Amino acid sequence: MTELTLLMRDESRPTERRAPLSPETAGKLIREGVAISVERSSRRVFGDEEYAAAGCALVPPGSWPDAPEDVYVVGLKELPDRPHLLRHRHIFFGHAYKDQPGSVNLLRRFTEGGGTLLDLESLVDERGRRVAAFGYWAGYVGAALAVLRHRGALVEPLTPTTRGELDKALAENAEPLRALVIGALGRCGSGAGDALVAAGAEVTRWDLAETENLDVAALLDHDVLVNAVLATGPIPPFVTTETLRRPRRLSVIADVTCDVGSPCHTLPIYDRTTTWQDPVLQRDGLDVIAIDNLPSLVPREATVDFAADLAPHLAVLDDSGVWRRAEAAFTAACASHDLHRKEDHA
Questions:
Q1: Rounded to whole angstroms, how far apart are CA atoms 337 and 111?
Q2: Annotated catalytic, 95?
Q3: 313 part of the active site
Q4: Range of the domain at 35
Q5: 3-state DSSP call for residue 124?
């Protein structure tokens, strides 16, 4: 039997602190017979020496393109532009299946290179439920930032912190506010709700039933809106530029979903994501926070939780319905754009 080999790459995004594996989960996989190499990183929340102590082999950052073809390259956020041709099986959040900007180019890099994208967003069980996600922490941080912005206490630029420090900030700046979470029953919505409760907010929770017949007046009668909806196809927008011309209490939106540029974008009042350096956009007197790696602001908690969910599935990479479904999603996405992997033409 061929030994399963993983290479955890260094993240190219300067503000990414998380990892798909913690040292603890990497060590457990190694004890189960999985070989793991880890690219050195100066930004990752866990130090290189912690992975080495767990039994991982340390390799230089950016060395994954030269790894043997049977290695699975594991990461979180976007790949660098080079090499253009991707020949490995990559596991990361590709954001390529909802016609996001750049998605066709990414899929083409895989098809022309003969590689495969096993998108972490497509790791689902037989009922279609995600098996590993950062959603709780995305919702928690997004809601916390929205509250702090509403109270004039958001410190810019943003820097990595902990849940304890966030909760302390929310408690120190406590004042009454009304907050709405859309998509309240999912992981993101749950995290958002917990942060808002920690802030002492009066929380309204909407999900499918409430968004089918959207009460725009009720939506606007909140101080803060947290959008935590996972849209898999186009749906009517929640807030538009026309909406913002109406009388409103609403002052801050945290868009945790960040589907900007996609047909699934439910908040077409803004057209770009925001950053740690510049976290807030202003639109018609409304503040919008749309950071697409929110959980990296609490990197330790987010990594520990995500890795604990992901690691058991990595142990069975070569023989699991979860991964077969992920590969089928990749194949379907390529076919929808008439892209075919190079071996398909052999």
A1: 11
A2: yes
A3: no
A4: 5-130+299-345
A5: strand
Task: Choose the final residue of a domain: 280, 297, 314.
Answer: 297
Residues 140, 124 share a domain:
no
Residue 230 has pLDDT above 90, yes or no: no
Q: How many domains would you assign to the chain?
A: 2
Residues 265 and 321 in one domain: no
DSSP secondary structure letters along 7-39? EEPPPSSTT----SS-HHHHHHHHHTT-EEEEE
What is this structure's pTM?
A: 0.93
- CATH number of the domain that residue 48 is part of: 3.40.50.720
pLDDT digits (tens, 9 = 90+) for 318-341: 779 999 999 999 999 999 999 987
From 77, 313, 337, 342, the catalytic residue? 77
State the pLDDT at residue 173: 76
Q: How far apart are CA 151 and CA 224, in angstroms?
A: 11
pLDDT tens digits, 247-281: 999 999 999 999 998 999 999 999 999 999 999 99
Cα dist. 206→172, 178, 232, 305 in Å?
28, 14, 18, 26
Residues 104 and 233 in one domain: no
Annotation-wise, does 293 bind a ligand? yes
User: Is residue 256 annotated as involved in ligand binding?
Assistant: yes
User: Cis peptide before 83, with omega less than 30 degrees from 0?
Assistant: yes
d(C-alpha 230, C-alpha 218), whole Å: 21
The answer to whether the beta carbons of residues 52 and 44 sit under 8 Å apart is no
Least confident of 187-191, 214-218, 318-322: 318-322
